[in-house]
Design goal:
about 60 residues, mainly alpha, Arc Repressor Mutant, subunit A, two-stranded antiparallel sheet, 2 strands, binds FE2/S2 (inorganic) cluster
């Protein structure tokens, strides 16, 4: 997985930033949104973000 890949174009949030948020304790979409800002503009990336959260929270 390319951690530098942008998942949220509106807010310029990368996969790595989602992972960092999950690693620092954010496990819900809402928490990750609060921490990273991802998915707070057009909302079009929310499904992808949720998928990444699921991935990062199940893979330790
Ligand atoms: S692409 Fe993430 S809020 Fe628009």
């Amino acid at each position: 997985m390319d951690m530098d890949e942008i998942v949220c174009n509106c807010m310029n949030v990368t996969k790595g930033m989602i992972k960092d948020a999950v690693d620092s304790g954010s496990v819900t979409l809402e928490e990750v949104q609060n921490v990273t800002g991802a998915g707070t503009a057009c909302g079009g990336c929310i499904d992808n973000i949720q998928q990444l959260i699921d991935e990062f929270t199940t893979k330790e």
